[in-house]
Specification:
Number of helices: 9
Shape: globular
Distance between the termini: 39 Å
Order of helices and strands: HHEEEHEEHEHEHEHEHHEEEE
Radius of gyration: 19 Å
Strand content: 25-35%
Largest sheet: 8 strands, mixed
């Protein structure tokens, strides 16, 4: 059953309640150095709120399963079981290390689509990703070199290569890519963690970031695809198995290697949601704040059916939460 338009609108606000809950529960752990405690609190809160939502949700991309305890693992059913049938991808904290160290750009995020529309790439943990906004569609391509992509993007937009900003996850395996960007004359914004936010920023027209490139998590790639598609941008991905075990698991799951997954293969519907609440401050959304007995949370809601982007601001009584 497809998710109807009026259900979409209601579902979006319900999902925001779940990401807000996860972000608020993580708040006491910001800067405290314990990423596992922060993640555990966020997972518990998100799962509890999802259990109250009137939908039949299946977790396609989740937290996994530890000691056979329910933790938003892949295949878990969430919601009341009534209403629309939906696939969801969750990351209670995208940026647990950022949260633990008190750095910027940690978010709590949920993506949703019609049942069966999301690519399940969970057996292969890493993916090479390339995200651009509308100006790069039909111009940029992951199959091209970094230099070629920068040149063509510059030609299409009229923006000098020297002014193009490329977000890259700051990892050793992306060092060569960073050097290629800088050698071509463009600038980099290195992301300590949380490349979902980086990908969404690259697809937004008002963002300073023009592209988001490099290897990162494949689950995060599918989550990002839901938001990028709704924004009218472009994302491409190539799976990057780390060992023979992942190759075997990927083949058994029907995944393709040496294959460019286009956006419509990652998410095979226009009927998508992307909702994210800030845990710590970042250019996408502000982080959770507490003043006296009031907690403030900021979220972004992107709806694929209409291409609408909304900011949602919420205030909670701290005495009822922390």
């Amino acid at each position: 059953m497809s998710v109807e338009i009026h259900v979409d609108r209601n579902l979006a606000m319900e999902l925001v309640r779940a990401t807000e809950a996860a972000a608020i529960r993580a708040y006491p752990f910001i800067g405290k150095g314990d990423k596992n405690a922060a993640d555990g609190a966020a997972v518990d809160a998100m799962r509890a709120f999802l259990g109250t939502v009137e939908f039949d949700g299946v977790v396609v991309i989740g937290e996994g399963e530890k000691d056979k305890a329910p933790m938003l693992f892949n295949g878990e059913h969430v919601g009341t079981g009534d209403g629309p049938t939906v696939d969801i991808a969750v990351d209670p904290i995208d940026g647990t290390s950022l949260t633990a160290t008190g750095r910027q750009n940690a978010i709590s995020v949920i993506a949703a689509s019609e049942r069966g529309a999301m690519l399940d790439a969970s057996t292969v943990f890493k993916m090479h990703k390339f995200v651009v906004g509308k100006p790069g569609i039909g111009v940029c391509n992951i199959r091209m070199s970094v230099k070629e992509n920068l040149k063509e993007y510059s030609r299409a937009t009229g923006k000098p290569v020297e002014e193009i900003l490329v977000a890259v996850l700051d990892r050793e395996y992306n060092e060569d890519l960073v050097e290629q960007v800088r050698s071509a004359g463009a600038s980099t914004r290195l992301l300590r963690d949380g490349d979902v936010a980086g990908g969404i920023q690259a697809a937004r027209s008002e963002s300073r970031i023009d592209m988001c490139l490099g290897q990162g998590g494949s689950p995060e790639g599918i989550i990002t695809a839901c938001g990028v598609k709704a924004l009218g941008g472009q994302i491409q991905g190539i799976l990057a198995p780390r060992d023979d075990f992942e190759i075997a698991g990927g083949k058994q799951a029907g995944l393709l290697f040496d294959h460019v997954y286009e956006m419509d293969e990652m998410v095979r519907t226009e009927n998508t949601f992307f909702v994210a609440t800030g845990v710590t401050d970042g250019p996408l959304v502000s982080g959770v704040r507490k003043r006296g007995d009031v907690i403030f949370a900021e979220s972004i809601v992107i709806r694929g059916k209409s291409g609408t982007v909304r900011k949602v601001f919420a205030e909670y009584q701290a005495s009822r939460w922390l």
